[in-house]
Design a protein that fits this description.
Layout: E1 3-5, E2 17-19, E3 34-36, E4 61-63, E5 76-82, E6 91-96, E7 101-105, E8 115-116, E9 129-131, E10 140-142, E11 162-168, E12 171-175, E13 181-185, E14 189-192, H1 208-213, E15 268-270
Antiparallel strand pairs: 1-2, 3-4, 5-6, 5-8, 6-7, 9-14, 10-11, 10-14, 11-12, 12-13, 13-15
Length: 274
C-alpha cells in the first residue's frame, strides 16, 4: 500500500495525492459479475429533487459482492485484486474449486494465489470467513454480520476493522471502528483481517472537478444563505451564523440523535466517543 504525490505540472495537481495501486493486479473486471448501475441524481419517482448536491459523475457498473460468504467448506483461490469504483476498499475475485467466481471485499495482506474458505471449519487466517463463535479472542476482524445470514454490513470501508473482545453465551463483545463496544450474536459471520486500501484516508483530490467525477455537486455554505433557506443564514455583513445546525434545525457537533427508547440500546456496552 502506498500513495504518490504528483509533480505540480497543473494547478489541480499541486496538492494532489493519489493511490499507488500497488495491490491492484488487473484492470479488467469479471464480466459475469457486473450489473448496470442507475443514477437518480437525487430525484425521487416523481422527478423531484429530494437530496441536494447529487448528480453527474462518471458512469459506473456495479460489481456484485458476496457479503454473505455462504459457500461454506469450499476452497477458493484469489485470482486477482481489483479496484471498485463503488466503494473505497479493494475487492478480490475468488475462483472456487467447482469453477464459480465471486467478488469479496479484500483484506489487507490478501495475495493472489492464496486459498481462502468460509465456514466453522475454516482456519482463522486472513481472508477466511468464520462464525464469530469460532474466532479466537483478540482477533482483528471486518465485514461483520449484525444478524446471522443478513450479510456483512459493518466494518466494510477502506482500512476499517473491529476487534473481538469477549464471548458470553450466544453473544460476543466487539469493539467497533467507531470506538463503540457492543454485543453481537456469535452465530454471525466475520472475516479475518482489516479491510484493504488503508491509505485511502491520505488521498487528496486536488481540485473540485474530481468531486464532480464522483457525482458530488457544489454545496452552498449555510451562513451564505438567507434566513428563509437555513437556520444559520442571514445577518448583517459576514455574520458567523449562530449555533451550528442542519437545514431542518437539528444541532450539529456532538448532539446525540439516537433514541433513548430504542430496543437495541441494551446491546451497546459503551457508546462511541464524541
Amino acid at each position: 500500500m502506498s500513495v504518490r504525490k504528483l509533480k505540480p505540472i497543473t494547478p489541480g495537481q499541486r496538492f494532489r495525492v493519489v493511490n499507488g495501486f500497488d495491490a491492484i493486479t488487473t484492470d479488467k473486471p469479471e464480466k459475469s459479475l457486473l450489473t448496470p448501475l442507475k443514477k437518480s441524481g437525487g430525484r425521487n419517482s416523481q422527478g423531484k429533487m429530494t437530496i441536494r448536491q447529487k448528480g453527474g459523475g462518471h458512469k459506473r457498473r456495479y460489481r456484485v459482492i458476496d457479503f454473505k460468504r455462504d459457500k461454506k467448506d469450499v476452497v477458493a483461490t484469489v485470482e486477482s485484486i481489483q479496484y471498485d469504483p463503488n466503494r473505497t476498499a479493494f475487492i478480490a475475485l475468488l475462483v472456487y474449486t467447482d469453477g464459480e467466481k465471486r467478488y469479496v471485499i479484500a483484506q489487507n495482506g490478501l495475495q493472489v494465489g492464496q486459498e481462502v474458505s468460509s465456514g466453522a471449519t475454516a482456519a482463522p487466517e486472513i481472508g477466511n470467513a468464520l462464525p464469530m463463535s469460532e474466532i479466537p479472542l483478540g482477533t482483528i476482524i471486518s465485514c461483520i454480520e449484525l444478524r446471522p445470514g443478513q450479510g456483512a454490513i459493518m466494518a466494510r470501508s477502506a482500512g476499517t476493522f473491529a476487534q473481538l473482545m469477549a464471548k458470553d453465551g450466544k453473544f460476543v463483545t466487539i469493539k467497533m471502528p467507531s470506538g463503540e463496544t457492543r454485543l453481537i450474536l456469535s452465530a454471525g459471520m466475520a472475516t479475518i483481517g482489516a479491510v484493504s486500501n488503508s491509505d485511502h484516508q491520505l488521498l487528496v483530490s486536488g481540485k473540485a472537478g474530481r468531486s464532480r467525477w464522483l457525482g458530488r455537486r457544489p454545496r452552498t455554505r449555510p451562513v451564505a444563505m438567507n434566513p428563509v433557506d437555513h437556520p444559520m443564514g442571514g445577518g448583517e455583513g459576514r455574520a458567523s451564523g449562530g449555533h451550528p445546525r442542519s437545514r431542518n434545525g437539528i444541532p450539529a457537533k456532538g448532539y446525540r440523535t439516537r433514541s433513548k427508547t430504542k430496543s437495541t440500546n441494551k446491546y451497546i456496552i459503551e457508546r462511541r466517543k464524541k
